[in-house]
Structures are given as C-alpha cells and as structure tokens.
Amino acid sequence: MRDGPRIAAGLALFLGLALAPVWQRAASGRAAPAEPVVARPATRCVASRDVMRASHMRLLDAWRDKVVRTGRRAAEDADGRPLAASLTGTCLGCHDNKKEFCDRCHEQLVVKPVCWSCHPEKAEKS
Amino acid sequence: MIESERPERRLFLKLAGLGALGLSARRILGGAAGGDARRWAMVVDPSRCRWDDGCNGCIRACHAAHNVPSVPDPRHEVKWVWKEKFADVFADQEAPHVAESLARHPILTLCNHCDDPPCARVCPTKATFRRDDGIVAMDPHRCIGCRYCVAACPYGSRSFNWVDPKPYLARLDPGFPARTKGVVEKCTFCVERVDEGRPPVCVEGCPEKALLFGDLNDPRSPVREVLRARYALRRRPGLGTRPAVYYLV
C-alpha cells in the first residue's frame, strides 16, 4: 500500500468534483423560487392559486384532450361559471405577460413546455 | 309438485317478456335520441367557380385563418384547399361530355371527410380520427410525423411540414395555432367554427357562393336540398371511402 496516500488524495479530488453541485448549493443556500408576475388583478380564476401552481399542466392537458378529441369547448372557473377551455383565448387573455408569468418558473426549473412551438404567445383577439 | 312449479314458471316467462320489451324500448328510445346526430358535408358547385381571374377567395380565407404557410418549394407545399382540373379530380369516371362542359371550371379539392377514412385507419397514434359528426379531425399533439396518412389518403389531401412553417406565414393569426416541422396537417372542416354553429371559412370566403355546408342527416339542410335537386359526383366512389364532399354536375 505504498500508493495509499495518493489514491486517497485522488479519491477526495474526484468526490469533491463529482459532488460539486451538492456542496455548492450547501454553501450558497437555497435558491429562492421564481415568482410568476400576475399582470393585473384577477377578476375571475380558473382555479385557486395553489391548485394552478401545482397542476396547471394537468389542467391544460385535460382541456386540450377534451377540446380536440371530443369537441367540448366549455370549462368552468373556480365559481362554476362557464369558461372557454382555451390556452390563448382564456389563459393569455389575462396573463398576457408570458415572459414573467410562464417563462420565469419554467426556466428556473428547466422545464421546456412545447405549447409555444405552435400556439401563439399573443392572446386571441376577443 | 308439478302444480306448484307452474306459477313460478309463468312468472318467469312474464318477467322475461317484460325485460325483452324493456330492452327493445330502450333501443327505440336510444335511436330517437341518436337521431339528432349530425353528419357534416359540403357541396361544391364547380360551375360557379372561376379559373382565370384570380379568384381564390376560399383558399385565401382558409389559409389565412388557419395559418397555412405558402412554401415556394413545391416539394414542401402545404395546402388545405386547392384547385385541380376536372379530368384530374375525376380521372376514374367515364363522363367525357360532362368533363367537356366542366373543363372550363376548376374543381375545388379539400379533405373529403370520408365515412371510412383510410388516413384515420392507418394512423398509429390516432392523431387523425373521425368524430361522431363525421368530421375527420387532426390532433397535432399526437402526430409523430410517420406520414402513413399521407400515403393512405387517396385524394392527396394531406400535407407534411418538411420545414418549419412559421417563416412562410405572411401573418400569424393568433386565433389559431400554427404547426411545427414534422407534423401532418389538412382541412378540418373548421371544427372550431362548426362547434360554435358557424360555417367553415371557405364557405364564407367564396364570393360566388359556390360552396354549401350543412348536415346530411337533416332533410331540410341546404346540402340535402341541393342534392335532391341536382346530380352530384363524389371522388373515387369505387374505393368505398364514402366522401362527404359532393360536386354538382
């Protein structure tokens, strides 16, 4: 075991580099989660804030399947009033600031939703 | 013993008869409820359509409303509605004199929204599917770009996006999604408008009123009225696809 110290040093260096993300994060503290900017005070909500934060992607998928596969284009808001199940027509009608509202969190979490490769970022004229 | 079994048997037979009656009644009632099912169809009157003086009202209206790109390279062309010669559209039909009289007019071609659509049958992801109202719809979210439907459609009604279509749009209509490279597209009979009770954009965009749209299951609809009065052709009837686009001759 003449090379013992060298092996130990090499291992320590390797572990230090391999675990860089872990100790870097431990040193810098927890990053603040990105806050979406709401463009204007809400008049009516599709669902509560917590529900939307946690599962807006599932809601959008459900709307998409319902509209495209069955042609049923009506949804309900949090108070049970009718609403068009439409990303550009309904969501972007109020949240017309995609950069601050959508992209900010998606970028931090490195999520790349493919919605925008076809759906226009601008709201439908109503 | 035998005497005591009789009433039970009679009761059983009575109940079985009632049950059968109930089942048939349900079928009759269900048939009545299903009677309001729609079957959307289009009637094209080629004699009202013009070749020469640049009338493309239907095509322009459709392609603008649905963000259909104008790709200059013909190999990458994307089209929902377009014009063809009579002899090319009805190449299989023995109608030389009809062809003569109609040769002066273009035949507007689009997806036929078949009763038995080959494109939907071959689609491995059911991205193309037939709705209950007869519209052969596209779900681009599911399209994997295999182009089986392009090969299966006997009418050439499907276009594949070989390139990103967005640079070839004169103007992006925010009211309708665009497409990406790698998905197939076609005429959708304007499902988004039909679901709201409005006719397709091509019907509204035609200045000559050469296009009619309506419900084949409604005997008083404009399409049924005109089909009663005039003879109409469908494309390649021998294939058994049963198109919902009729051409008046």
What does this structure look like?
The complex is a heterodimer of chains A (126) and B (249). With 126 residues, chain A is mainly alpha-helical. Chain A folds into two domains: 1-30; 49-117, no CATH class. Helices cover 52% and strands 5% of the residues of chain A. Chain A has helices at residues 4-18, 20-28, 49-70, 87-94, 98-108; strands at residues 74-76, 82-84. Chain B has helices at residues 2-34, 57-65, 86-89, 96-102, 118-122, 148-152, 191-194, 201-205, 222-229; strands spanning 40-44, 82-84, 107-109, 128-130, 136-138, 159-160, 184-185, 211-215, 232-233, 245-248. The model of chain B has no long low-confidence stretch (mean pLDDT 89). The A-B interface holds A 64, 68-69, 71, 73, 88-89, 117-120, 122-125 and B 129, 131, 133, 137, 139-141, 172-175, 177-180, 191-192, 195-196.
Largest β-sheet summary of chain B: 4 strands, mixed
User: What is the number of beta strands of chain A?
Assistant: 2
Q: Report the C-alpha radius of gyration of chain A, rounded.
A: 23 Å
The parts of chain A where pLDDT drops under 50 for at least 5 residues are: none
Quickly count the helices of chain B.
9
The largest inter-chain interface, given as chain pair and residues per side, is:
A-B, 15 and 19 residues
Into how many domains do the coordinates of chain B divide? 2
Q: Which segments of chain B are poorly predicted (pLDDT under 50) over 5 or more consecutive residues?
A: none
Instruction: Estimate the helix proportion of chain A, in percent.
Output: 40-55%
Number of strands of chain B: 10
CATH third-level topology of the largest domain in chain B: Alpha-Beta Plaits
Instruction: Give the C-level CATH assignment of the largest domain in chain B.
Output: Alpha Beta
Molecular shape of chain B? globular
